[in-house]
Amino acid sequence: MAEMGQRRRLDSRFPLRENVRFRQKGSDQVIESVTRDISARGLFIVHASRSIWPGAELELHLPCAEGRVALVQARVTHVVRSPAHAVGAEPGLGVQFENLSADQADDIAALVKRAQANDARCRIPRLASGSERRPEQLDPIHEYVLKFIDGAKAPEELAHLTGMDVDAVVEELHDLRQLGVIELVSPDRGDREVPGNVDESEPDLDRFCARTSIRAKSLRVPLAESGCTALVDTTATAMAQRDDYAVLGVARTATPEQIRTAFVTRYSHFDADNADEQRLGVYGQALEVIRQRLVDAHATLCSASARAEYDEYRSCCDVLTKFDAGKSALSHEELGTLWQRRARYEEKRRDHAAAANSWCRLYELRPLDLQCIQKAASLILEAKLGVRRALALAQQAVELAPTEPYNHRLLARVYLESGLRMRARKELQKAVELERGGDKRAATSA
User: What percent of the chain has pLDDT over 70?
Assistant: First the structure.
């Protein structure tokens, strides 16, 4: 059974701008374009043609080291027909490599490694030595991001502090590097290389098997014989309900041993190799999502403290469900307390879509609660639920507290998501001016 950590590494994607040539199977036309990002499994090609559809077979000509060109077979998995400015997408083709030889796999691995080395998300920004450029000469967005760069914070931390999207922060970091203001350095991790997007604390399946006296290999059942498609449907329904017990198929009174056994058993049904996943089509595409959801559910229910906190959350959800169905009565204050408790747990769990919905429900009860407005707007953006509702909430936050810099940063973030960079600059400039004014007042009072 493959390690879960390795499956996650295979899906790590890194920006890569390289010229690429490709030809659709059965056609003599060779198309030249550029790549957007790459992983060990596939890449994204920027291309606006309407003649290529999902499932099409392509022959790729990828540039490699020493001027060589690798000829790789690939299949189109998804097509973006037009740019989606709200999420920064480009029109193009998502393709998955097929039938890679050992040499081709090595060439792909070298491209992924080069892309990872140049990815600002995997590096730490710090002020460039000898830089004489003053912040006053920079764009307001550059100046704003530069204020938080201390040589220790990663792009994700900068995104949290600035209230901007990670991709937007990375774009500004690349601009600042080109201006010579900062440099991007590798994080100090000693001699051990840690691949990006890998959670080293995730459970070890072999350890679970040992504890439950179950051998993982004995649990592997051919997908065609295990009714995997029906199990995918059942598990996906439980995932939509966000019920960890239903995801693992156990009762709420289940013991830790029963939970571990259920996890190992169910995970084994979804542990398919690449050929199996391709044969299952859309069900195969759902397997990776389900595997990670099983890991998360197990991690929650096997920890006594995390399970107690989750049980309290589920009880809260049950009460709110009964209230919505008209089966129970709650006061306005009780209702607000329950929605706030639910929203905070979902936010802690990084379930941005659910948390955004819960904060919006709380906003309906507390329309003048500034924290509620800020949380709802921010999480709507995190969950990519659209900018229209987030814009209305961010504008209301500015109206309620026009002297608070965070509200202007939040509104600027909405404008950035919408592609309105000029408006975003104005709001960030206001935030900078308000912060400078606060610093001056603090210095005067001191």
Answer: 73
